[in-house]
Each structure stands twice: as structure tokens, then as C-alpha cells.
Amino acid sequence: MKKRVWIVIALIPLAAGCLQSPQRVQSIDLLDQLVDARDTVAQHPQLGCDLVGNVQTKLYGEPGLTTVQPAWTNLRAAADALQTVCGQTTLLAQPFNDSPATRLARQRWQQGIRREAGIACDHLRNAAAALGRSAPC
After folding, report:
1. Nearest CA among 101, 39, 109 for reference residue 31
2. What residues have CB less than 8 Å from 66, skipping those under 6 apart?
3. 22-60 in b/e burial notation, b at 16+ Cβ within 10 A?
4. N or C: less crowded end of the chain, CB within 10 Å?
5. Which 8-state DSSP code applies to residue 21?
6. How far is CA 57 from its chain centroid?
7. Using the 8-state DSSP alphabet, how is residue 65 labeled?
8. CA angle 3, 8, 13 (to 5 degrees)
9. What is the pLDDT of residues 40-73, one digit of tens each?
10. pTM of the prediction?
């Protein structure tokens, strides 16, 4: 009986070494949430933008996430790009007067949304690769 206890105790560090770090697991979860947010923003902007905000809070507030490099840097950049999409989507949803200046502004915001969504996708792909996941977009 005593021998079995010592074998189990000896195996615990080996088993723990095989587990993924909690920061890496959380980074994968945040990647999944950002991918969901990117897909949601077009249909349900408020819901998608709330998801982005929650991920940003965790990226900056959870201890140890910055050590998961280069995934953290790419997740942060993707969240920033998606936050820009949210801002421009909010601007487009506002009532406006039909003047040349507002038409031009709205056109630029629409172009900005497409550009920032592409930038977010690039960063999400890079984060996924760093975390050993398939490309999300």
C-alpha cells in the first residue's frame, strides 16, 4: 500500500506537466469569443460589441495572459480592430442629414468597417496559429 502511494505521488508532477497552462486555455477561449464577436457584429452589433468589450477586459485584467505570446498580442490587436468596427457601426446607425459631407463620411465608415474586419481576421488567424488552432476566417 505504501509503495502505491509513493508511485501516485511521483506521477503527479508528470501528469501536471502534460496539462495546458490555464493562461493558454483562457487564450483559446478568448480567441473563440472574438471569432464569435466578429461573426455577430454584422447581424447583432450590440451583442457582438459587448463580446468584444468583455474580451478586452479579460485581455488586460487577467493575470498571466500577456505571457502567452504571440497569441496575446494578436488577440489584443484583433479586439482593438473589432472595437473600431463597433464604433463605426454605431456611427452608421445614427440618423443623418443627406448632405455631401455626411454621405462621404458614411462611405468612409463603411470602408473602415471592411478594412478593420479584415485586419481583425488577420490577427485572429495569427493568434489561432500561435495557439495551434485552425484559421477562424
Report:
1. 39
2. 72
3. ebbebbbebbebbbbbbebbeeebeebbebbeebbebbe
4. N
5. P
6. 11
7. G
8. 135
9. 998 999 999 999 999 999 999 988 999 999 999 9
10. 0.83
